Amino acid sequence: MSIAYVRETDAPLRAPPVETSGPVGWLRENLFPNIWSSLLTLLLGMFLAYIVWSVLDWAVLRAAWTGTDRAACAFEGAGACWPFVWEKFPQWIFGFYPIDERWRPVAVIVIGALGLAPMLMPNAPGKQLNALFLLVAYPVIAFYLLAGGVFGLEPVETTNWGGLLVTLVVAVTGIVISLPLGILLALGRRSELPAVRTVSIAFIELWRGVPLVTVLFMASVMLPLFLPNGLNLDKLMRAIVGLSLFASAYMAEAVRGGLQAVTKGQTEAGLALGLSRWQTTRKIVLPQALRISIPNIVGIFIGLFKDTTLVLVVSIYDFLGIINAGLQDSKWAAPQTANTGYFVAAIVYFIFCYGMSRYALFTERRLAESGRR
Amino acid sequence: MKNKLITLILGTAAGFAIAGAASAGTLDDVRQHGFVQCGVSQGLMGFSVPDAQNNWTGMDVDFCRAIAAAVLGDSTKVKFTPLTAKERFTALQSGEIDVLSRNTTWTMSRDTSLGLKFAGIMYYDGQGFMVNSKKNPNVKAVNDLAGATICTQSGTTTELNIADYFKSQKLEYKLLTFEKNDEAIAAYQDGRCDSYSTDQSGLYAQRLKMQVPDENVVLPEIISKEPLGPVVRQGDDAWFNVVKWVYFALVNAEELGLNSKNVEEMKKTSTNPEVQRLLGVVAADGTAAGFGIGMGLEEGWAEAAIKQVGNYGEIFDRNVGKDSPLKIARGKNELWMNGGLQYAPPVR
Fold it and tell me: Which of A159, A271, A361, B264 matches a 20 to 30 Å C-alpha distance to B33?
């Protein structure tokens, strides 16, 4: 029973107007909503295109790709000098680590990556064992693999470590030491025991009151003069200790910010439930505080990673330092050699810092879900 | 003022350090360790540079290798410690290194108040000038630079040296100074100034990094004194003598025509008593020269150094001179008999 003027089927859906949806709509809304924005978009777009083109032109089109010495890169209008990078790159990674022993740092990095990967994945099993491995077993394994002297491994002095290896060793050790130490200091600063509080405040303010270069310099130049002759503390170790203590002072302040953001009611609720003060701190206050502090903590991690370049002032060759040293090789001296070296350094540092920052963002989002109601 | 204060502090600190360091002779320490601890620059073209195989190369480096060859008989028995300019003296004072071979200028204050001793002058450096031969084809000497604009780094002695020199020569000049060396070089390359000035060895290094190195000419004169040489701790005369005489041996070797290739041959065939004394040849009547033993070394000390590292000229040519990309002219570093300043007392 059909009525002629009643439709039985829906009219076909029409696509939304082009002006407000799809790529065109997005462009209109975000890039060209009015004349001034459009102008600005065009201007910035041209600028961006110019930059990208310049980099591409320099790094790819005009670049030298093969060669054995400076002659390959020293022609007029030359771009990036890649053969320099090919020859020096292993040294940038391993420093002066003996060439035959380079598998050891590789092994350390691979073991570290294998241990870290499940740690970073939220639903991987065995978190506690994994953490135990990473924080207790791994440093020992890494140290003996790198330094050698046991199980027939040839000893390699830390003065021969260098490049990205040292950057990673310093940064990772700094991060691993500074986080727990920073948390302890932050708790100490809020403690009700006057002695603990005073010591914590003094420590934090002392380390935050001096520039990092001064710390490294004291550790490297002045310390040996005060030690009895013949007692040579390892230079790399001195730098790592200095950097870690320095970072932990900043870490303490970041964590304290988080602790203060957790309302007092949380502690009181915990105590009212019959939890001890320690349990309340560990199970109720700290998890919330750390979640709040994540952006700051990661900021400090990234800062620490980049601060490792300062160990150059105490003549430890980190990644940037070894690139600098390589630039002095007269075999490769050419107009664009230095720019090429720094270009590679920028890319590598960016990859690491950006990676850390993205992972932090991911963690933040994941943890924020629990706070949603 | 600031420098004096630093000097004073370092000097005082050195006093303490040396009180502890002088316990045993450095020479014995080196023998006991089995290697020479040598402080070098973190990287300076032609003087100390790590190559891709992790070997240190350069003039300062080769001098340490020569010491190792003379003392231990093996030029590879060196442990190189790269040092910053600030660390170098404390590293020596605290005993971290045995000899500092790091393009360090011999000055009176360093020699007299730091508890250190300079053992010789490996390289006579000094402030020089570079001009673009295409833009200024007529400039062949510094005095042709009358009325020129000169680029240099600000706040360094180079600035003062230029002022002093041009005033004393009654020449007009304009100075364009820059905070950073790289900026000064960029300005020179852009043609904002006629000449760029810094230490001559640095000029040659910078020249290599320019678009067309051959267009840029380093003028022959130097207007300041920057004698670079190895440094040891004061108060250890035996070690001081060893370092000093290794240097003299390298210079004497060049003067006597001994080099890494012919030294073994010459030891057997040469009848020149100078050569025989230097190489410790046992004389016909069975008496040995005894110069090496007198110094606490083996008789073959000089032979080992020359054979494994080369004479002064070979070291120079290989690292900074005609066989290297730098192509620095011998200039003041030529032997005394060829018009240079390199001179060594006789072995007698």
Answer: B264
What is the Cβ-side half-sphere exposure of residue B61, based on CA atoms within 13 angstroms?
25
Work out the number of other CB atoms within 10 angstroms of the CB of residue A196.
Answer: 16
Give the end of a domain, one of A106, A127, A156.
A156
Say how many domains are in chain B. Answer: 3
pTM over 0.90, yes/no: no
Q: Which of B84, B100, B203, B317 to mutate to test the interface with A (most CBs of A within 10 A)?
A: B84
Residue written as token pair 């008593």: B273
Answer whether B87 sits within 8 Å of A325, measured CB to CB: no
| Inter-chain residue contact B90 with A90, CB threshold 8 Å | no
Task: Give Cβ neighbours of residue B138 (< 8 Å, ≥ 6 apart).
Answer: B144
**In terms of domains, do A146 and A214 share one?**
no
Q: How many domains does chain A have?
A: 2
Domain identity same for B71 and B91? yes
Residue B240 has pLDDT above 90, yes or no: yes
Contacts of A229 in chain B (CB under 8 A): 17, 20-21, 23, 94-95
Q: Which domain holds residue A148?
A: 87-156
Q: Which residues face B132 on adjacent strands?
A: B216
Q: Is the pLDDT of residue B284 over 80?
A: no
E strand spans, chain A = none
Q: Which amino acid is located at A365 in the chain?
A: R
What are the pLDDT digits (tens) for B55-107?
Answer: 999 999 999 999 999 999 999 999 999 888 888 898 898 888 999 999 899 99
Residue B345 counted as domain residue: no
Cβ–Cβ gap B52/A88 under 8 Å: yes
Cα separation of A11 and A235, whole Å?
Answer: 79
Residues B233 and B189 in one domain: no
Domain annotation covers residue B337: no
Do A184 and A214 have their domain in common? yes
Closest of B29, B51, B9, B32 to residue B99, by C-alpha: B29
Q: Which of B26, B58, B54, B55 is nearest to B41 (CA)?
A: B58
For A211-232, write each residue's pLDDT tens digit. 988 888 888 777 777 776 666 6
Q: Which residues, other chains included, contact A370 with Cβ-Cβ below 8 Å and sequence gap of 6+?
A: none
Report how far residue B54's alpha carbon sits from residue B50's, in angstroms, rounded to the nearest whole number. 6
- Of residues B304, B269, B289, B307, the one with CA closest to residue B346: B289
pLDDT at A372: 61
Q: What is the pLDDT of residue B154?
A: 82
| CA A267/CA A288 separation, integer angstroms | 11
For chain A, the residue count is 373
d(CA A364, CA A367) in angstroms, rounded, equals 5
